Amino acid sequence: MRRSVGIVIRVPPANAGHVWALGELLECLRAYLIDGVRIAQSGTDFAGAADKFVKAFECWCQEVESAVGPLTWARLTETEARQLEQRPSAAQAATAR
User: Fold this and answer.
1) Mind listing the pLDDT tens digit for each residue in 71-95?
2) How far apart are CA 68 and CA 53, in angstroms?
3) Is residue 53 within 8 Å of residue 33, measured between CB atoms?
């Protein structure tokens, strides 16, 4: 999220290790999913990996939110809010393909 939008979130040191580890897990699972597509992995295997990715992402979101609180529009700078508003939604991105 931070890379794609430019929002900087300060995670307290007590939570930073968990956030980092979950981020690394997400990166590994993302790479696994990409490789699975390349080698025509079975649908069942891909679905299992996708489910693990979603669960890991949910854990990452919960960890970040418990560390820094929910991210509200009021906490964003004007630039950050504008960047988020300009990003296409998932539906818009899917129809553009």
Assistant:
1) 788 888 888 888 888 877 655 655 5
2) 22
3) yes
